[in-house]
Amino acid sequence: MRIKRFLSLALCVCLLLGLLPSVGLHASAAEATICMNFVTENTRWSYGGVDFDCNRDSSRNITTADNGWAWYGAGNEVYAAKTLVLEPTFRLDTTNNVGILLPAGSKIVYRTTEEAGPYIRASRKNNDSNAYGVHCKGDLTVCGSDEQAVPTGLTILAGDSSSAKDSACSIGLWVEGTLTLDAAKVNVTGGSIAGRDSYGVFAEKDVVVTDSVLTAHAGAASGRSFGVFAKGTLRVASVTDGSTVNAYGYDSDAMPRAEGKSYGIWTLKGVSAEAGEGGVTVNGYGASVGGDAYSCGILISEGDLRVSGTESAAQVNGYYGSTEAGMAFGLRVYGDLSLDGLASVSGDSHRDALVRADCYGLYLTGAIKVTNPDPFTAPRLSAAASSTGKDKPAYGLYATGKLELPAALSGHFSGTSSALHSAKSVSYDALASGTTTADLSEPVSLYDWKASGKDFVKDSKPARVLTLHPGYDVWIGSHRISPKDKLSDVLGDGTVAYTPAKTESDAERLTIRDLSLHADGCSGIRSFHDLTVDVQGANTISAKSAENACAILSYGSLRLEGKGSLVAASEQADAIRAEEGITLHTLVLKASSGASYAVQAVSGKLSLISATLDAIGTPAALKAATVSVAGDVTTKVGEPLVDWDRREPLTAYPQVSVTVNPPCKGDETCPGHAFADMPEPNNWAHVGIDFAVKHRLFEGTAPDAFEPDGTMTRAMLVTVLWRLAGRPECTDVSPFTDVSHESLYYYVPVAWAARNGIVNGVSPTEFEPDSLVTREQMAAIMFRYAKFREYDLNGRADLSYFPDLGSVSEYAAEPLAWANYAGLITGTNGDDGIVVIAPADGATRAQVAAILMRFMQYYGLDVTEPASAETR
User: Fold this and answer.
1) DSSP output for 407-457
2) Are strands 403-404 and 288-289 parallel, antiparallel or unpaired?
3) 39 and 54 Cβ atoms separated by less than 8 Å
4) Which helix (H) or strand (E) holds 813?
5) How far is residue 293's CA from residue 224's CA, in Å, rounded to a whole number?
6) CA 41 → CA 304, 536, 683, distances in Å?
7) Residue 16: count of CB within 10 angstroms of its CB
8) Could you give the CA distance from residue 95 to residue 86 in angstroms, rounded to a whole number?
9) Where are the alpha helices (DSSP H) in 444-573?
10) What is the C-alpha to C-alpha distance for residues 544 and 547, in angstroms, rounded to an integer?
11) Using CA of residue 627, residue 361, residue 542, residue 116, what is the dihedral sign?
12) Residue 255 burial (CB count, 10 A)
């Protein structure tokens, strides 16, 4: 209530200290327009030679075809009374403090073309008064007669001033009632002002946006800057088309900075976002501010934040800017947070904001309520906060009361002080169906956590990262996908196959082929969990029209792999972004961003394995904690990458190009150039043999022969794995009767492998060292080796689409699913051309070389152990 009374007092000061805006009484045809005044409290005005007496003609219908406007003051066959119609050619640029003054209950109907839309600007002749681009004395409705896809819309601006009195305000659109946008696209900007406040939109009651796009900017003000301010509620909905609100607490033409306090959106009674057939997006951006000023994305003083997605996604995002000594809030809600269906809410920083003061991703005084318990439609909540100030708190989610996290909630929270903070207690019993991970170096269960009364802690240490993952969490554009979706209905061109994570430690998995996806106002592909994307064919993914819209965005780790290519572009955000690490494996990636990094691993390592990358970004192409190139080079970002084509610091350049393991030329530099039977460089087997020979995993069968089509025995494979382990000593006696002579080159490797459970033999007493190793045996042996080495064994492929799955031996079913998932053993063409898994087939030397290369690259291994002559 104190905030409400303060705002009312501030408005009275702005309006009643003798500084009422001056509207012109008369202007001849030769003079510049003073004000288009359709309110009868003043006498006369003129525009474009049309003289209008409001006292006499307020109910008259006037059309001015040459000047692009028409006023319908009385009943007619087309429009209701008090309707102002604006044509695409209409342009009002007045030196007065008010552009257009309308009576209560008015409606603006505008038309646009691809090139032009109506334009209204009041440029403040009187610097001591308030300025309004459009001022309505009561309720106002704005309707567009064209599709939202038209790039132009209705533009309204209030003028700037550097000498206004401390009580003067600049407001792009002031409505003394409820503002309603219906199928409209409106761009509003308040002027920069040396006086008190600047507003893009100011509504004395509600702001209602339906199937419309509202973009509102405040100017830089010494007091406060508001993108959208409503004394009532902000209600955004979609019925047939989508709705978007982008509200900025700063000038559209300036750097994102305000002189005083900055708010993207401030409402007194709440915010609601309800998505029907079209999606709904609400973004509030606080500016970077100086001194002890606040930066807040969205502030709700008295009311709830309600987000509901029934048929499409609804999302509300609040972003804070930099501040030195003030406070920063992504979202600040003095009420409850209600989430239903395909709902998403986030509070985060804006453009890597630097905060040296108190910082909150989401500040909440009420409860979190989830009304749809379906795991597929589990709402999403994320909050992040970071502060570099000494002893300054930074909490992802801060609750002033008891914090209860519903079971159906999917969430990601991070804070340099703590991911979660509750002034009272944290209830997590309802989360029994979900899982939790933290950045304390090991996974933890829900019941390992304790509520200390202040911070969400484990073993008395704050958890700075907390992830909740109850269900499917991958989005294509604004559509949340499930394995049952017919994605062709959503995507159009290209194909996408989706495999959800079965456990918290698994990654969500997408396979894309020849995909052409262009997202407007949201990310192209978005995952709130670890994500692997298998890239096949030629693919293009782009995102535009939102500062947080990436081509691909993962709130966990991201792995891009496959034999295809991907062009990824973002207009205003990172093209490729992951909150944790990013791995690029074998694919060709071209990534570009018009306003940020091409590829950014926020808190992890960027690993490139046999990949080709072309990256263009601003201020730099890449950003990560460290960079690893094929296991050979690891460097901190900012230090030279000596094996790259750029030898200067990575972050100093907006463009980076690198090919890891470039194609072999087949000349003297080729590791296998001495072999007469070496496959040509364009043959699939060449790169694997090169890799195996370069790393001395095995050599040729003769000085000038490799025998790529030769057979691989069980003894050979075990010996190679023994070498990968570093030639460990083993004094055990071999348990196999057919491996009994210590002079055999594979005696120690087999004894070592048997002792560590890597091989079991074909029977308790026989190993069959000279038998050909089959595909399923190789999968089982390498699976057990990876387990012995404590490598990550998460991830299983679905082998049910292979028609010969029934021929897989029971012991090899899980290892073969792992090997297929990791890309080590893939399908092969059968006799009839059908792709099969062929578990009993043998493997050639070339095939094993390729599999070992993939294995080492999958785990980022580097082997320099010299090979012996016995290893064929």
Assistant:
1) TT-EEEEEESSEEEEESS-EE-GGGGGS-EEESSSS-B-GGG-EE-SSBEE
2) unpaired
3) yes
4) helix 813-821
5) 9
6) 39, 69, 85
7) 10
8) 20
9) 487-491
10) 8
11) negative
12) 11
Beta carbons of 615 and 648 less than 8 angstroms apart: no
CB count within 10 Å of CB 116 equals 16
584: left (phi over 0), alpha (psi -120 to 50) or beta: beta
Measured CA to CA, the distance from residue 247 to residue 740 in angstroms comes to 78
Side chain identity, residue 4:
K
Given a contact cutoff of 8 angstroms between Cβ atoms, the answer to whether 68 and 91 are in contact is yes
Bridge partner residues of 40 (DSSP): none
- What ranges make up the beta strands (E) of 500-619? 508-513, 516-520, 525-527, 531-536, 538-544, 552-554, 558-561, 565-570, 576-578, 582-585, 588-593, 599-601, 605-609, 612-616
Amino acid at 631: G
Are residues 351 and 256 in contact, defined by beta-carbon separation less than 8 angstroms? Answer: yes
Structure tokens at 158: 């209030």
Alpha carbon distance 482, 500 (integer Å): 8
- Fill in the amino acid letter for 847: Q
Q: Pull the structure tokens for residue 822.
A: 């990791």
Closest to 429 in 3D by CA, of 466, 403, 396, 397: 403
What are the Cα distances from residue 268, in Å, to 168, 233, 250, 320, 744?
22, 7, 20, 19, 83
Please report which helix (H) or strand (E) contains residue 179, including its range: strand 179-182
* Distance (Å, whole) CA 586 – CA 688: 13
Q: Which two tokens stand for residue 179?
A: 């503002």
Tell me the torsion sign for CA atoms 396, 399, 403, 409. Answer: negative
Environment class of 814 (CB within 10 Å of its CB; exposed 0-12, middle 13-18, buried 19+): middle
Tokens matching residue 317: 């995002």
Its pTM stands at 0.61
The amino acid at residue 546 is A
Going by DSSP bridges, is the β-strand pair 83-86/69-72 parallel, antiparallel, or unpaired? antiparallel
pLDDT of residue 34: 59
Distance (Å) of CA 584 to CA 410, 691, 869: 27, 18, 35
- Specify the DSSP class assigned to residue 795: -
Distance CA 329, CA 327 (A): 7
Average pLDDT per 10 consecutive residues for the chain, totaling 872 residues:
39 36 30 61 59 56 73 74 88 86 91 88 72 92 72 84 66 96 93 81 97 91 88 94 91 59 94 90 89 88 92 90 86 95 88 81 92 66 87 88 74 83 59 37 37 55 68 67 55 66 66 84 82 88 83 90 89 91 88 90 83 82 77 44 40 66 77 90 84 81 90 90 86 92 92 93 91 93 92 80 87 91 79 80 89 80 43 35
One-letter identity of residue 128: D
Do the Cβ atoms of 542 and 517 come closer than 8 Å? yes
Closest CA to 168 of 132, 203, 204: 132
* Sequence-distant (≥ 6) Cβ neighbours of residue 662 within 8 angstroms: none
Nearest by Cα to 516 from 583, 587, 475, 569: 569
Helix (H, G, I), strand (E, B) or coil at 630: coil
Find, among 353, 494, 458, 339, the residue nearest to 405 by Cα: 339
DSSP for 679-746 reads PPTTSHHHHHHHHHHHTTS---SBTTB--TTSB-BHHHHHHHHHHHTT-----PPPS-TTS--TTSTT
| 3-class secondary-structure state, position 805 | helix
Nearest in space to 83 (alpha carbons), one of 108, 100, 62: 108
| Cα 45 → chain centroid | 51
* Selection from 316, 253, 249 nearest residue 285 by Cα: 249
